[in-house]
Write a structure and sequence with these properties.
Layout (H helix, E strand, L loop, with lengths): L5 H15 L7 E4 L10 H20 L6 H14 L7 E3 L1 H12 L1 E4 L2 E6 L2 E7 L4 H5 L6 E5 L2 E2 L5 H8 L6 E7 L7 E6 L1 E4 L5 E6 L2 E5 L7 H12 L6 E5 L6 E2 H9 L7 E6 L6 E4 L12 E5 L6 H11 L4 E4 L7 E7 L5 E10 L15 H6 L7 E7 L5 E4 L7 E2 L7 H8 L2 H10 L15 H13 L6 H6 L1 H16 L2 H11 L1 H8 L1 H24 L3
Parallel strand pairs: 1-14, 1-19, 12-13, 13-17, 17-18, 18-23
Antiparallel strand pairs: 2-20, 3-10, 4-5, 6-7, 6-8, 8-9, 11-12, 15-16, 15-20, 19-20, 21-22
Helix pairs in contact: 1-3, 8-9, 12-15, 15-16
Length: 540
């Protein structure tokens, strides 16, 4: 592509440099268009000449043939963006297509998660009611061949691409399954595979609902409202909103989700940038008086961007009790600029502020991007950025959203780490179900002592090191993990997730915290009444 058209190298990099004068990045997106106007800055023109000169020398004289795509897409452009901020990002054609697919929440294929295990690509799980699920593919199946192409030497991404294709087309998948001596062949018709961003909405107990949002895509707010309709929102007496692990997504979708719980015209977020006018985003609906039930929002260090907009807005308006860990701390807005050759640029164009005026962006000026992304364990709230919620509670900017109530998950012990590291439950489940023609279990199935003992013997046989004292001390944990894992094959991945939710101690803590959310709401209402009364007593 690039290597066949060197004029494109000059033009595409020129466009990137023009945009870079504005800013870039990944996490929360708005739409954008690229200006075709040429740069007027002489220094940029000189820099472009220097770059093309260097590239010409490299292309003509490097010891091996130069892959221009790799040099530009993986080298020059990302290198430039790294001088801006940690979230500026360039998407080559494959990455840009994946981004759009992710935002749409749908693709065409067979509908299963695959991953590397033991040097091979295995099926982790098929999605419920997908073509792969209906065909009978199972977790632990090793993908040996797709149509006439053997998978030896192919990585997981390449295999996943082979499984995708236009709706209605056929694909043959040959797998090896533990316990069977011959491969199993499946002829599957590809279909639309929906990947909802609001996958779970269940009742934890009478009156207390649970809903999780995994990211903010194009359809998140619609899915959000649809889940409320399915639950029957009038029956909700309290809601646990799970935003753990949510990396963010589209700004407008975050605004819509937060607005569901706020009064009309309540400020949700504002953003300010050098090349864009300052803009405030307000709640459009008037659900504040209708959705008067208490809300507990659960977050962790991987809750970022739009997830922080939602949790920050609900915290600043005293609309929800926030529980968990301090969030990631990403207060930057990216605009996605489509470029030529099906590429795209995500450029940081603004900072965003919560309703109280907090900038929650974590400082990245004196650390590596690796530390910024993966070593964000220390709390970094900015003590100089002190703000107040509507009810007068103190909140801080600088290091993400600090929860109202902190929760740290219990650390795994050595025995638990060993079993998970060696995929003990996954491998046992694959071996247990492998020879069975029918993998279904009765509704409400629970692992009994016979299954636990079978796992015990399987682990010993497969050289997983543990003591009898370890196994006995972790008996309940073993049963819970077994249930989660075996539910994937016996029922579905989605059913296993629901089991996990019901067993999650942090979700149980969130339910216990519901009275605090009630108190928060009541205090906010009292303060509102006081303010109204004070205004009425003012001389006119």
């Amino acid at each position: 592509m690039l290597s066949q058209n060197r004029s494109f190298i000059r033009s595409s990099v020129g466009i990137v440099v023009v945009i870079a004068a504005c800013a870039a990045a990944a996490g929360m997106w708005t739409g954008g268009r690229v200006s075709a106007a040429p740069p007027n800055d002489d220094s940029i023109s000189q820099s472009m000449k220097a770059f093309t000169s260097v590239f010409d020398v490299v292309e003509q004289n490097f010891a091996d043939k130069v892959d221009a795509d790799k040099a530009i897409y993986n080298g020059a452009v990302p290198g430039m963006l790294r001088t801006l901020d940690p979230h500026s990002n360039f998407f080559d054609p494959k990455a840009y297509a994946a981004l759009r697919e992710d935002q749409r929440g749908q693709y065409y294929g067979v509908g299963m998660q695959v991953g590397p295990r033991n040097g091979k690509t295995m099926i982790m799980w098929p999605f419920e009611n997908s073509p792969a699920y209906r065909a009978g593919l199972r977790p632990g199946d090793v993908i040996a061949q797709i149509n006439d192409k053997k998978t030896d030497g192919l990585n997981t991404t390449e295999i996943a691409e082979l499984l995708k294709g236009p709706r209605g087309t056929k694909v043959q998948v040959r797998v090896s399954r533990e316990g069977l001596t011959t491969p199993v062949v499946y002829d599957i018709v590809r279909d639309a595979i929906a990947r909802p961003s609001v996958p779970e909405a269940i009742w934890l107990k009478p009156g207390i609902a649970y809903m999780n949002v995994t990211q903010f895509g194009e359809n998140t707010s619609k899915e959000f409202e649809e889940q409320f309709r399915k639950l029957g929102e009038n029956n909700i007496k309290g809601l646990v909103l799970d935003l753990r692990g949510n990396p963010g997504g589209l700004l407008n979708e975050g605004v819509e989700v937060a607005g569901h719980f706020l009064k009309k015209n309540d400020l949700v977020v504002s953003h300010r940038g050098r090349a864009q006018p300052n803009k405030n985003y307000y709640s459009k609906s008037d659900n504040g008086g209708k959705t008067g039930y208490p809300v507990v929002v659960v977050v962790n260090r991987s809750s970022a961007s739009a997830a922080e907009i939602v949790s920050g807005a609900l915290q600043d308006h005293d609309r929800a009790w926030v529980l968990g860990e301090p969030t990631f701390g990403k207060g930057l807005v990216q605009t996605v600029f489509p470029l030529s050759e099906n590429t795209g640029l995500a450029l940081t164009t603004a900072h965003y502020y919560t309703p109280s005026g907090r900038l929650i962006q974590r400082d990245y000026s004196h650390i590596s991007f690796l530390d910024y992304y993966y070593r964000n364990k220390n709390e970094q709230k900015d003590l100089s950025d002190v703000k107040m919620t509507d009810a007068g509670r103190t909140v801080y900017g600088g290091g993400g959203i600090t929860p109202d109530e902190k929760y740290e998950a219990a650390k795994l012990n050595k025995f638990q780490i060993e079993l998970l590291r060696k995929s003990g439950f996954f491998n046992f489940s694959a071996a247990y179900f492998g020879p069975k023609t029918d993998a279904r279990m009765p509704k409400g199935w629970e692992p009994d002592e016979n299954i636990v003992n079978q796992l015990h013997d399987y682990l010993l046989k497969n050289t997983v090191e543990f003591t009898e004292a370890d196994f006995t001390a972790n008996h309940q944990w073993v049963k819970e993990q077994l249930k989660r894992e075996m539910y994937i094959t016996a029922f579905s991945w989605e059913q296993s997730v629901r089991v996990n939710i019901q067993q999650d101690p942090e979700i149980a803590r969130a339910v216990d915290a519901m009275p605090k959310a009630v108190t928060l709401l009541e205090n906010a209402k009292k303060l509102l009444v006081q303010r109204v009364n004070q205004q009425e007593r003012l001389p006119r």
